[in-house]
Every structure is written in structure tokens, then in C-alpha cells.
Design brief:
four-stranded parallel beta sheet
Length: 134
Amino acid sequence: MNLITTSWTAPEVGALFVVTGASGTGKTTLVRGALSAIPGLTFSVSATTRSIRNGERDGVDYHFMDRETFMRRVEAGEFLEWAEVYGNCYGTLRAPVEQALASGQSILLDIDTQGAEQVRASCIDHLSVCILPR
């Protein structure tokens, strides 16, 4: 698959792309290819309640927060989408996405189907891409 574009003009307002699909369908490969080939496209940094691992940096790999803070922000409507997975919470903060889009930057989310459904329900303009197994 060739993702290289011959010409590109950055839009005034960015686009939100939601990539979802089952594990092993090639989402990560597609996302990495798109990020390296499309100027102005960035990957959203998710928030999580899980512990930081060696080599990870807060604000770069994830926005790390305790469960109480995470849930308080959920209740305040600060998440575009979120889910609890194996005892830890993961989600996409709404404000950074909206700020990036308003500045012309396009954002790529790699999220599960539950999160994609929440984005759809939020009424924020986006393009959903569901990757199916071959």
C-alpha cells in the first residue's frame, strides 16, 4: 500500500481520523504508515491510570493520572472517549484534540470499537476507518 501523496495543502481546520479494528488486523502498521507519509497528521496521546513503565514519559507516551483524577475528568466531560481495560482506564482528552483541530492539525486516534462508538456519539466531525482481518 502506498500512502505517499504527490501534493498536500494543509487545511485551515484539521481532520479527526478514528482507526479501529480487532487486534492483529494491521491497525498499527496502517497508523505508522499514515503518520510518516501525511504532513500535519499527528497521533493523539491518550490518558491512562496504569503505572508508568521504564522509558515512558508523561505527556509523550501517555498522560498518566490516578484513578480519582481520571474519573473526575470523565464526570466533567473532559474525555472524547474512554474505557476501562483490565482494571486500568484509558481515554482521549477532548481539549487537546479540539485545540489541534482548530489550529489546522489533523489527529489520528487508534482506539477500540467501544471508544469509536463514543466518538461517533459525541457528534464531533471525524472519519472512521474500521480495519477488518483478511
